[in-house]
Write the structure tokens for this entry.
Amino acid sequence: SPQEVSPPEAGVIVHLFEWTWPDIAQECEQVLGPRGYHAVQISPPQEHVIVPELGFPWWQRYQPVSYQLISRSGDRAQLADMVQRCQAVGVDIYADAVINHMAAMDTEPGSAGTTFRRYDYPGLYSSEDFNRCQQPISDYQDADNVTQCELVGLPDLNTALPQVQTQLADYLVDLASLGIAGFRIDAAKHIRSDELAAILQLVRDRVEPAPFIYQEVIDPGTEAIKKHDYYESGAVVDFEYGRLVGEAFLNVGDRSPADLHTVLSSADLVPSQQAVVFIDNHDKQRGHGGGGDYVTYQDGDLHTLSMVFMLAYPYGQPRIMSSYAFETSEQGPPATATGRTRTVYPPDRLGCGGEWVCEHRQPAMTAMVDFRAATQAQPMVTDWWSHGGNQIAFGRGDRGFVVINRASTTLTHTFQTQLPAGDYCELMSAEISATGDCDRVIRVDETGQFRTTVAAMSAIALHHAARAEE
Ligand code: LAG
Ligand code: CA
């Protein structure tokens, strides 16, 4: 029977890409808990390759050497401490689980000091544990090729074997024993769905409550492996959603935000209660994972507005990408010359808005995390409105209303809503004001209408729980 998955109201996930464990602990206490974030996706916590000759790229983390919890983000004790501290303020931790393959680059010992060779990882796996293909994946129309050959040349585990399934389940159970509440299944498309289901069943047999599972299945609709093959194991990350929203906001071809409600309603997306969605992820923002037209922090206001749309629109469980600034696609996080990651908090105190971008701290993001929580009980879109291609608005019944002006001109209009009459606090401006006070009050009249002006390339949002003081 299909696994229970978190409903969309379970809240917003933030991917703190390449953050260290002590930084994540502080971020939970100071920002994520107070602001109502639901969970953090962390970078893969296991031992990984070290590649100094390429300047310690981020993708070191996707080449596992062993399942010792010693990585660029910190050690086992730091990981355990972080999970506890986040849990204490109501924030769950989801680990990125790299279980399809092992490390390819074997010239240096791994991050925990383990010496290994391709197809031979001491105490874990030897050559008989790997698939026989041993060639890079070359044919996405052939399911066996996709699941049994090597993703970008990474040694492909034979996940049909009981000993491999047990080894992988042991790793995930170990993470769960530290309090980790869910897993992003990396490269799920490259693991046969029945074999992945068997591995996850071994985990569920030993972990209570069952971890939240979301599987990385990039399905453009034209390949042998389909996202629905994976629904029985949990949630699935929908890659079409972010592409469709991105193309609309970028005005690719003749697309525009005005068409989005129709386009999303008719697209072949993962069912809402089983979908994890994003505007950009760590691959798409740098042209990895197949590339495509996705909007990223480098697009500035366009990115903010796309994210506002995702957080306001009642589909799937949203994941916010929290980036570090980069110029080249291989570039790792801010680091010393020896590859030690430099931190947001002490000792380095780099802070946010520079080398660490921290999209999740933007006022529009924290406002919309609040909006999503306040509107979750109303899953319908009401009063959809558009003017031209780039000015849209919609309601969430009597719970909330959002206006997104992606045009380069000011928008003044009288909007129809289902909101009860009253004085509402405009959420974005409240977040921006230093005091957190309600800077801008919008009055909804007895007929549910309000008239307002929205600046070019900006948005406003109202919800029922943020009324202005009488
Ligand atoms: C994923 N999802 O399914 C990750 O989101 C994605 O970031 C991972 O690839 C991929 N699956 C495998 O876990 C990343 C980089 C690759 C990198 C790989 C392994 O996008 O570029 O490959 O991690 O580190 C690198 C080199 C390749 C080389 C390969 C093997 O870039 O040129 O062939 O290592 O040595
Ligand atoms: Ca595989």
